[in-house]
Amino acid sequence: MVISKRDKAHSDIVRWLESVVIGQNLCPFAKHPYINKTVEIVISLEQDFEALIEVFATELERLEQYDAKVLESTLLVLPNATPLFEDYLDLLALANEFVVLKGWEGRYQIASFHPLYQFDGTDSDSRENYTNRAPYPVLHLLREESVSKAVDSHPDVDSIPERNIEWLNALSDDDFKRLFFPEK
After folding, report:
1. Long-range contacts of 93-102, Cβ-Cβ distance < 8 Å, separation of 24 or more
2. Per-residue pLDDT tens for 111-168?
3. pTM score
4. Residue 75 — φ and ψ, nearest 5°?
5. CA distance 61 to 83
6. Mapping DSSP to helix (H, G, I), strand (E, B) and coil, where does residue 125 land?
């Protein structure tokens, strides 16, 4: 059976969400909307920035059309786009500019993920980068109101990044590979 690139990307992202993001509680806010099926996973096979921004705009417009109880957020997965992290950062900057131009600053925000995500001041192979690494480039379109509610409900939101880094560093090499490199 031949699996399309779109289907493979979808299954890879679902596996990453379920086994890493939710399964390892990297984001304590992810489970509830995911199990309530209010997170949409959209796979775009577009490659050029103009087409990608059009898809991004369409997905933000769709969020505008629905109540958060129906559509909380959208994971825009871009398997054909920006294999280089630096190019992805350019796309992310354009997406953020679009939010501002539409007057949606303070209404929507973007969480960013990329297979080569690297925080400033870290080595490329530092495990802490894996808090924002996904199988493909991803723009997670979030409602600011929902983010605020989630943050307000958490007893110590500031401890989440440090807890995640400690957890990643404590994983055995085998467990780390199993989670982040399942096909190897």
Report:
1. 94/49, 94/53, 95/53, 95/56, 95/139, 98/53, 98/56, 98/57, 98/60, 99/60, 102/57, 102/60
2. 999 999 999 999 999 999 999 999 999 999 999 999 999 888 888 888 999 999 999 9
3. 0.94
4. -95, 110
5. 26
6. coil
For residue 30, the number of C-alpha atoms closer than 13 Å in the C-beta half-sphere is 21
Both structure tokens of 154? 């958490």
Instruction: Find out whether 140 and 76 touch, Cβ atoms under 8 Å.
Output: yes
Q: What is the C-alpha separation between 40 and 70, in angstroms, rounded?
A: 10
* 113 exposure class (CB count in 10 Å sphere: 0-12, 13-18, 19+): buried
Residue 97 token pair? 């500019």
Measure the CA–CA gap between 114 and 108, rounded to whole angstroms: 20
